[in-house]
Amino acid sequence: MDLFDPTFVSSLMHKKYCLVVTDDYSRFTWVFFLTTKYETSEILKNYIKEIENLVDKKVKIIRSNNGIEFKNKVMDDFCREKGIRREYSVARTPQQNGVAKRRNRTLIEVDRTILADSKLPTTF
């Protein structure tokens, strides 16, 4: 995947949201670009199935904020079926999700650096 490929750039232009998944143990991070927040449940379900198959380990806990994209019937049923516990952060307590906040800040800084070096128009 070439970050400066015009077709890749144009496909991202329609994506408004970013889902960032970070592994607690390794701090490895996956980024998914979404058109709507409603895609979150399906992407998380597919990601969990794929990662459990790939590393032959079970996802035990999902930590997230209280957004409706994480608290819905689809995710409730999926997590109950897989035996996954869910933990939600309390609103306005950045201490509870410091890892996520730092990771997001790092991703934004990297994104800005790549955009500045690409010499693309400032509209990007």
From TrEMBL:
SUPFAM superfamilies from the xrefs? Ribonuclease H-like (SSF53098)
- Give start and end of each Integrase catalytic domain: 1-124
Instruction: Give the highest taxon in the source lineage.
Output: Eukaryota
By its UniProt entry, which Gene3D superfamilies does this protein fall under? Answer: Ribonuclease H-like superfamily/Ribonuclease H
**Which Pfam family, an example, fits this chain?**
rve
For this protein, the record's InterPro entries field holds: Integrase_cat-core, Retrotran_Ty1/copia-like, RNaseH-like_sf, RNaseH_sf
What is the official name of this protein in its record? Ribonuclease H-like domain-containing protein
- Which lineage? Eukaryota, Viridiplantae, Streptophyta, Embryophyta, Tracheophyta
